[in-house]
Design goal:
Largest interface: A-B, 27 and 24 residues
Shape of chain B: globular
Order of helices and strands of chain A: EEEEEEEEEEE
Distance between the termini of chain A: 37 Å
Distance between the termini of chain B: 41 Å
Number of strands of chain B: 11
Number of strands of chain A: 11
Oligomer: heterodimer
Chain lengths: ~120, ~110
């Protein structure tokens, strides 16, 4: 069964450093997403990506964040200068349009990258 | 504003039925999802409702009332492995942005 993969599984970094989180979405999916989940809190939307551009982003996704699809398979999230409050589990997800509605449908989540900022 | 409400925790007995309720308010709406999340793992898809009514899938069923902004997830013949957090999420745009609730932590006891 196809799955979303993410690397690394755990990243420890110092405050102020740049990190890049990597994802390989399911190969024929068209929509890509990043979410984060701070320990004990709810899953929060960061950004969605479609047709090689950001389609929507949340208030969390400020200038410190960027996304890229550098080739046909990878989807990355970069945090330029990490803060302590960026410590969280970051999930990548991908989806295809619903066959009836044409709207982005079931999102398959990757296993996540646990980011710890010290 | 955008808000998803669901109970924080529930307890049920193995073999029983449990219903987890969710109410939502979103500025756009393209369907209601239920996900299961075990501790330390990724959410996994359980169900999707875009039209009013009941969708059944094995031991799991999900109901939606768009006029009431209400959904529930029904789990039958509970098993110990069903102990997990159940996340209600509304799709709030054509691009599929999901707004999640806090999750309902379900404990299944023997």
């Amino acid at each position: 069964e196809p799955e979303v993969t993410q690397t690394p599984s755990h990243q420890v970094t110092q405050m102020g450093q740049e990190v890049i989180l990597r994802c390989v979405p399911i190969s024929n999916h068209l929509y890509f997403y990043w979410y984060r989940q701070i320990l004990g809190q709810k899953v929060e939307f960061l950004v969605s990506f479609y047709n090689n551009e950001i389609s929507e982003k949340s208030e969390i996704f400020d200038d410190q964040f960027s996304v890229e699809r550098p080739d046909g398979s990878n989807f990355t999230l970069k945090i330029r200068s990490t803060k302590l409050e960026d410590s969280a589990m970051y999930f990548c997800a991908s989806s295809d349009p619903h066959r009836r509605t044409g709207i982005a449908y079931e999102q398959y989540f990757g296993p996540g990258t646990r980011l710890t900022v010290t | 504003g955008q808000n998803i409400d669901q109970p924080t925790e529930m307890t049920a007995t193995e073999g029983a039925i449990v219903q987890i309720n969710c109410t939502y308010q979103t500025s756009g709406f393209n369907g209601l999802f239920w996900y299961q999340q075990h501790a330390g793992e990724a959410p996994t898809f359980l169900s999707y409702n875009v039209l009013d009514g009941l969708e059944e899938k094995g031991r799991f069923s999900s109901f939606l009332s768009r006029s009431k902004g209400y959904s529930y997830l029904l789990l039958k013949e509970l098993q110990m492995k069903d102990s997990a957090s159940y996340l209600c999420a509304a799709s709030a745009s054509q691009g599929g942005k999901l707004i999640f609730g806090q999750g309902t932590e379900l404990s299944v006891k023997p």
